[in-house]
Design brief:
The chain has two helices and four strands. It is of the alpha+beta class and 63 residues long. The chain has a single domain, classed as Alpha-Beta Plaits, CATH 3.30.70. The strands form two sheets. It has a two-stranded antiparallel ribbon. A two-stranded antiparallel sheet has the order 2-3. The longest helix is centred in the last third of the chain and has 10 residues. It is globular and about 30 Å long. The N and C termini lie close together (5 Å). The model has no long low-confidence stretch (mean pLDDT 96). Bound molecules: iron/sulfur cluster. The site of iron/sulfur cluster has 14 residues, from helix 1 and strand 2.
């Protein structure tokens, strides 16, 4: 699965980073960066939780 970020919605709050650190990271400029473009199978549940936690609905998963 790939992580799709809607940059028009993301405000760098970092909820995703707190749920799935190492996949999502908010940098010093307050911008969220993906540390991996594709989700390793063993981390899928964690990433799905991060997608659900985003208060701005900025994240989704795609095949
Ligand atoms: S939780 Fe959503 S709004 Fe916050 S940094 Fe992550 S993607 Fe952006």
């Amino acid at each position: 699965m790939r992580i799709i970020v809607d940059r028009t919605r993301c405000t760098g709050l970092g909820m995703c980073e707190s749920v799935a650190p190492g996949v999502f990271e908010v940098n010093d400029d307050g911008e969220m960066e993906l540390r991996t473009a594709t989700v390793p199978g063993e981390r899928l549940a964690e990433v799905e939780q991060a997608v659900a936690c985003c208060p701005n609905e900025a994240l989704r998963l795609a095949p």
